[in-house]
Design a protein that fits this description.
seven-stranded antiparallel beta sheet; 3 helices; 2 domains
């Protein structure tokens, strides 16, 4: 007579634990452990992705705190340390000589300094230009720099090499074969052209687009500076007093500026040379040590 395998006499022993069913408690514990490990790895991956995405998003933001834009008091106005020209006429050599024309005007009760480079070629440069380099007739800071990591805000091309990417601001300046173009666009073909032809490109806040004022988000007042195109003539215009973006841009519109983008203003460093090779410092409160501190420079051809 056969016995059921589950039957056992009192004087018999059965060895337990060598054979497990698929639903044993030990298997369940192992499965739970693997589920916890998989869940932990998934959470870590999500956290890493969030940090990566947020880092890229910051590069595209328009609200970065920049190094050279502190709000300043009205009595801290920049005044060019300009040497007076000697008596006499300007002579005919000024027709071909590279120099910067410095004008002053007041538009809508806003006093302005206007710098117009003549017979010089624009380019971008990293690092503070040497004031003893007489081939430079005008220079001022160009693209913003992030306060947290010192990197350039927005797309930037230096001699055909992209150093920064991103559409942080819609205004742009492109320099191709010595020709400077100021404009406003989400995507400009000049960026690609600059990389292909060894040119220059950077992004900034747009101020005037085809003669129309462009509003910007940043509030408050500061010394404002702009790179402008008026009837094909390129100039740098700077307020002598702290102004809002709106009021400064309106003054440019009333000057009949066609297109304008912002330049680093406030206490940013710059200088120019007049017809007599006299050096004038636009503003001398600048800071050294930033790897990507950049300038727009006009040099003798």
């Amino acid at each position: 007579m056969s016995r059921n395998e589950v039957d056992i006499h009192d004087d018999e022993l059965r060895v337990i634990g060598q054979k497990r069913t698929p639903h044993s408690s030990e298997d369940i514990r192992h499965k739970k452990l693997w589920w916890w490990i998989a869940a932990a790895l998934l959470i870590c991956g999500i956290i890493a992705a969030v940090f990566l995405f947020s880092g890229k998003k910051e590069d595209m933001s328009e609200s970065e705190a920049v190094v050279f834009e502190p709000m300043i008091e009205p009595d801290d106005n920049p005044v060019a340390e300009e040497v007076l020209a000697p008596l006499g006429d300007y002579s005919d050599t000024t027709l071909t000589k590279a120099y910067t024309e410095h004008l002053r005007d007041t538009i809508n009760d806003i006093p302005l300094d206007i710098y117009i480079p003549h017979n010089a070629v624009p380019e971008l440069a990293l690092g503070v230009p040497d004031i003893h380099d007489k081939s430079i007739i005008l220079t001022t800071q160009a693209a913003d720099i992030r306060a947290d990591n010192g990197k350039i805000v927005g797309a930037f091309v230096l001699k055909g090499k992209p150093l920064s990417w991103g559409l942080s601001k819609k205004g742009y300046c492109g320099i191709i074969d010595g020709k400077l173009t100021v404009g406003v666009a989400d995507n400009s073909p000049i960026f690609e052209e600059a990389t292909e032809k060894g040119g220059y490109f950077f992004r900034q806040y747009p101020l005037v687009n085809n003669g129309v004022l462009v509003e910007n988000e940043p509030k408050g007042k500061s010394i404002r500076k702009a790179l402008c195109d008026r009837n094909g003539e390129i100039m740098v215009v700077m307020s002598q007093t702290p102004e809002s973006f709106h009021d400064f841009a309106q003054a440019l519109v009333d000057m009949k500026i066609d297109d304008a983008i912002y330049l680093v203003g406030s206490t940013s460093f710059g200088y120019f040379r007049d017809k007599y090779d006299h050096l004038a410092i636009i503003y001398n409160k600048f800071r050294y040590g930033y790897q990507y501190e950049n300038f727009i420079v006009w040099r003798v051809e």
